[in-house]
Amino acid sequence: MTKKQIFYFGLFASIVLLSSGFRPFKMEMYPWLYAFEKRGVYTVPLEVEVGQKFFDVPFTGKTFVGFTQSLAVRESQGKYNKVNSLGYLGKYQFGAETLETLGISDEEQFLHSKKLQEKAFLANLARNKWELRKEIANYSGETVRGITITESGILAAAHLGGVGSVKRFLRTNGNRRFRDGYGTSITEYLREFAGYDTSCIEPNKKAKAVHYTY
Length: 214
What we know:
This protein has 214 residues and is mainly alpha-helical. It is 44% helix and 4% strand. Residues 22-57 have low confidence and may be disordered.
């Protein structure tokens, strides 16, 4: 082998050796860390793939925004266009009767309007807070069936089962309990949504979604 051949062989060997130093010999990465391109669609980790049940992003704490978003996730996974098997509509799962009370008669329009759904939710909270103003004043801070009663818990429970079911539960010291069509009890909502700040909602007996400021 000539000196020239030896030089080029040594140069090639050096390049191979140096290149190998910049990548691992064995890559042990989870497949969900990669982004795969399929007609412009990229996959991201699913919550089951990373072993989490809930992603707390963004953090909203016990604020009113936290209350609205947590309740929306519980009701519909936060989907504005969701219609469940019982016919309840939207992000907050409203029934036709409640929508009519709030001044909404066009369910199709409601389902396709994010702004109207948010206005309906706020108006309904205002109505429920007026209807339950005595219960909020008399029972907040009390413990019923091991549940600390709060204003936000009362409003969430009323959203699930109506004002009457909350009144009956509190006035019978928890002996009268309501469950919805899927078996969810108002006690779950009283506990799960306790302690949020809902002070920004003003009680309003005649609140309508179509006139509600949002």
